[in-house]
Design goal:
The protein is α+β, with helices and mostly antiparallel strands. It has helices at 16-38, 45-54, 60-65, 67-84, 99-111, 114-135, 139-214, 219-248, 270-276, 297-317, 350-353, 356-366, and strands at 282-289, 322-330, 334-341, 370-375, 381-388. The chain is 61% helix and 10% strand. The protein has a 5-stranded mixed beta sheet, with helices on one face. One of its GO terms (molecular function) is phosphorelay sensor kinase activity.
């Protein structure tokens, strides 16, 4: 995923009305500075600094779109007010009128590119201390004024830097969340495709082998195998179409009515799944204990996919003429799923090259359950999963 520059300046696209407001506010700010010179000749430096700081509200639009221009304006206005005030007032706090410059510089640090910050910092570092030094009378006043100026600029710059880092961190968190969501979605789709296609191809391969062996001696059995291949192929094609349609849709209601998505498989389809494996030489028995109840869609689908993948592995690795048992044990807190077979089990490296067991483990982990898979001491293979269930709804809860 492409990464956008977090410190890029905001867009400067404006309407004529917004530009007029921006520069109108700038003119009012300049007019306020002139009033501080001619209208209040005996005002203290603190009062002048407070008025100029409050007048920054006139520069909100300019600060958002052209903070460098706002910085130049405030620096010029502060210098004019500081030196113009000397005609009627020689108080030692005249340097405080540069406080708005520090605030605007903090905004530049928080919102502009690093190159723009470097340029603004160079200009402020060269001009403001020189202007402040010219206001001082004596070395002690010079030292104090410069110290206050440097500390004010440093504090505003640090505040801007913290705001910048916080904004960039939030943007990184959003990007990370989007990337994790995309990864999770890809993994979900990969699991769905693997579980669906791997099972179907396994069944088709078995039926094709049966058909090729008996096509001359037992035409009826060969025809039966071909029918099973056709049915499995059609079911797989329909599932692939549902998946591709879901991927192509930009919005949930876009393209509705073109291709029916159909319901996702679940526990109700385990009987049909077991029956589809009968012609592959695997006899499957499904047993349910406990009080069976409706499951949330994600758990219902995951249980079906876990059983489907486990039985697909039986077809692949256990050999012909085996029996498999699917056990579903419902309790108030969890559902225990167990798939056993009495075949020869997987080879030593089978589980390392495929994605079946990994996919089952991921499904169970997403549901905060426990999963185990491995050969049985008496022969065969065992897949077990324990999935926590939400509390059943009661009439009182409704």
């Amino acid at each position: 995923m492409d990464r956008t520059t977090q410190s890029a300046p905001p867009t400067t696209g404006r309407t004529p009305g917004s530009a007029l407001l921006d520069w109108g506010g700038a003119l009012l700010y300049a007019f306020t500075a002139l009033l501080l010179i001619g209208g209040t000749p005996f005002a203290s430096g603190l009062l002048r600094a407070s008025v100029l700081t409050l007048a920054l509200s006139l520069l909100v639009g300019l600060l958002r779109r052209r903070p460098l221009a706002a910085l130049g304006l405030t620096l010029t206005a502060a210098t004019v007010v500081a030196y113009g005030a000397q005609w009627g007032n020689l108080t030692p706090d005249r340097h405080l009128v540069f406080v708005p410059v520090a605030i605007v510089f903090g905004v530049v640090v928080a919102t502009r590119t690093r190159r723009a910050v470097a340029v603004a910092g160079t200009v402020v570092a060269l001009l403001e201390p020189a202007a402040v030094a010219g206001l001082a009378h004596g070395p002690y006043e010079l030292t104090g004024n410069l110290l206050v100026t440097v500390l004010t600029l440093g504090a505003c710059a640090m505040a801007g830097l913290l705001l910048r880092q916080r904004r960039e961190h939030r943007a990184e968190l959003r990007e990370s969340a989007v990337a994790e969501a995309l990864t999770a979605e890809r993994l979900r789709i990969a699991r769905e495709l693997h579980d669906m296609v791997a099972h179907s191809i396994g069944v088709i391969a078995i039926q094709a082998g049966v058909g090729s062996r008996v096509i001359e001696t037992q035409p009826a059995e060969a025809r039966k195998a071909l029918d099973a291949i056709e049915a499995t192929s059609r079911e797989t094609l329909a599932g692939l179409r549902r998946t591709l349609v879901a991927l192509r849709r930009a919005q949930p209601d876009e393209g509705a009515g073109h291709v029916p998505t159909g319901p996702a498989p679940g526990l109700a389809d385990l009987g049909a799944l077991a029956a589809s494996l009968a012609d592959s030489g695997v006899r499957v028995e499904v047993r349910t204990t406990g009080e069976r109840r409706d499951l949330p869609p994600d758990i219902d689908l995951s249980v079906y996919r876990i059983v489907q993948e486990a039985l697909t592995n039986v077809v692949r690795h256990a050999g012909g003429g085996v029996r498999a048992r699917v056990g579903l044990d419902f309790s108030a807190e969890e559902l225990r799923v167990e798939v056993l077979d009495d075949g020869r089990g997987m080879s030593a490296g089978a589980g390392k090259t495929g994605f079946g067991i990994t996919g089952m483990y991921e499904r169970v982990s997403l549901l905060h359950g426990r999963f185990s898979a491995g050969p049985r001491p008496e022969g065969g293979f065992r897949v077990a999963a324990e999935l926590p269930l939400p509390a059943p709804r009661t009439e009182a809860a409704r």
